[in-house]
């Protein structure tokens, strides 16, 4: 059993800022050293943007918490330089099974096609996830990148000004003052920053509770996601089983609404429930127990002047579907390149409003899917339950019924259809790589497509030529020319060309498509770049 969550990684140390006669101004401060805050800090540091991370804790999170990390966030982590340790340690899976009572009604494969570097999902305890991000941050610090992390530094006051944000930070040595040009709040679902600014969520809280138990046991269950509706060990409720590294298994059990949460978390009440599920002879140890309530809520706006919210601080969804940490990493992936352009004076501050537009759009998509999952898992009327059970019965035999089964639609990346940053879209190219969509990976000569994209604007040319370098308004565009000769599997053609003979894609620094054409047109590219940076 891992005990890394017991070891301080960044213990409190007095900083020079605490002895300064005037508040020290930092370009960017991130509140929260969870996965989202660390991801934001790494992204900033890699692009030489000075960043300070403040956290009242000094170690990784207790308990596995978030465990399912999807393909797109893994690709983001590759860009951040820490995808390999996550996948190497994680339990890789692509398939799942759905049970009704004791019967398997169907199975599914979340990545049915070949030609992707990363799997559909890995399962990895959050404490490992945070550890590898922290180690990457320290690597960057050792390389001379401008990043700091301070444990035992609790932000107790946030005061937005016109052109900066003032902070009061409490420490074991007493409080001190800081200022920052930009504040990124990644301080979780109970965000103190949000509370200090008098902001709140809008959305739904569902009348149901679920028990999470991480158990250590030797078991020969396959590496799959198993979900039960109305199983014999938890009648009229649901259950979920996932494998994690180190022989840790995640079990979710639906409990209902009218419960005593503190009583239900006690081992003497948890263990009989687990024995009923696993069998009386299975030996296991409890590692972590928690109870959660389904919530599908978000802030009305994620950007409030120079204070920007990301991750659970900005939005919450029910855990089934693995949309929390996954969508949070996509928040910072969307934000950081825009913030850098604004800070460098290469884009107007209004570009940050498109972070709000695109990630609220993404949050609403997640909330919609999560709400539908919750309504299917926990029917609110007898008629709804009868409909659900009929769908489950039919799905065992009839394929048409299976898309209606919703045991938690699993996280997929958001395509920003209608974004103000989207440029032209040439007819005849594949729908899946239209403007606003994340790039789809493909094997190419010498490796993988996504490894050659990211952190900058690029022109991806297939079966045609583009300049190796182009500049528009101080922003460089790097050319990447490939041909079908670089496409041994045909995946690049299938995903980016379709029936077209050639194509040119303008890619954003977050690997989303900004615009595309079937031939290179310099004037059109320059116009699309100005649109994609909010300068049009």
TrEMBL record:
Keywords: FAD, Flavoprotein. One of its GO terms (molecular function) is oxidoreductase activity, acting on paired donors, with incorporation or reduction of molecular oxygen, NAD(P)H as one donor, and incorporation of one atom of oxygen. InterPro entries: FAD-bd, FAD/NAD-bd_sf, RIFMO-like. Coiled coil: none annotated. Residues 27-361 form the FAD-binding domain. Its cofactor is FAD. It comes from the Bacteria. Gene3D superfamilies: 3.30.70.2450, 3.40.30.120, FAD/NAD(P)-binding domain. PANTHER family: BINDING MONOOXYGENASE, PUTATIVE (JCVI)-RELATED, TRK SYSTEM POTASSIUM UPTAKE PROTEIN. This is FAD-dependent oxidoreductase. It comes from Roseibium aggregatum. The lineage of its organism: Bacteria, Pseudomonadati, Pseudomonadota, Alphaproteobacteria, Hyphomicrobiales.
